[in-house]
Amino acid sequence: MLIDELWELQQLQLDYRQKERLLQELDLSSSLRKKIAETQEQLAELQSQLETFRAEEVKIAQKLEDITTKVHEASARLGKEEMSEDKVQKLEAKMKKLTQDKEKHEEAQSRNFHDRQNVDDQIRATQLMAEKLRKELDSIPQSDAASKAAVKKSLPALLKEIETRKSKLPLDAKLIFENLSDKFSGAPIARVTSSTCDYCHVRLSARTLFSLRNGEEKGSHAGNLIRCEICGKILYAGSGDRE
Ligand SMILES: [Zn+2]
After folding, report:
1. Which of 31, 135, 222, 229 has its C-alpha lying 20 to 30 A from 193's C-alpha?
2. Residue 33: count of CB within 10 angstroms of its CB
């Protein structure tokens, strides 16, 4: 019967789609793995930048301490010692220079602080990104390269089988099957269980049920396909349900 052929065709079609989806997921998981590795590299680079900033900060702080000590020493001498005008001028010039040096280092300290904060922010963002990618990867079913190759290899034969079966269908049935396949993600046929369409779960009318039971004698063309009045799918009552 035509409807049995179409039902088998739908099974093949769904199998094909499911395998294609699996391959896409596998590609996605390998690209996620690559992204995670790149993120780890970025993180290592940022950590090393952070270390450099920290070391620099210690150096600047040390230098500032030295300068402050020198300024104190100079100002103490200026207050205490009896010294010539010439010496006083030299000492004052030295203090001025020390003060400028101090300002310069304080600026460097603040710059370093901001740069370091910037790197800190980048590290946090990168860590969040890595975590997000890892979660995404965990949500994808894992499969090895060998099974991926096997699935990939089986696809052309499956597609050929589907095309061969389609080419043997009456043209009108083929067109309906293909149009509804596009509309319903490859599943144009709904099973009938307990007088109900399995897709939209609506109880079928007496007329539709009558046609399903009596459709068998009419032969193989699309006019004999019974459609659900609600969702429009082709209805399939398995041979057990037809009695
Ligand atoms: Zn329906």
Report:
1. 222
2. 13
Q: Tell me the per-residue pLDDT of 38-92, one tens digit each, with 9 for 90 and over.
A: 999 999 999 999 999 999 999 999 999 999 999 888 888 887 777 888 888 888 8
What pTM did the predictor assign? Answer: 0.65
Measured in Å, residue 234 CA sits from the centre of ligand 1 at: 8
Q: What b/e string do you get for 96-116 counting C-beta neighbours within 10 Å, with b at 16 or more?
A: eebeebbeebeebeeebeebb
Residues with Cβ within 5 Å of ion ligand 1?
Answer: 197, 199-200, 228, 230-231
Classify residue 160: in a domain, yes or no: no
Structural domain includes residue 11:
no
Residues 122 and 218 in one domain: no
Residues 116 and 187 in one domain: no
Locate the DSSP E strands across the chain: 189-193, 196-197, 234-236
Report whether pLDDT(24) > 70. yes
In this structure, is residue 45 part of a structural domain? yes
User: From ligand 1's centre to the CA of 166, what distance in Å?
Assistant: 23
**Residue 196 C-alpha to ligand 1 middle, in angstroms?**
8
Say whether both 51 and 131 belong to one domain.
yes
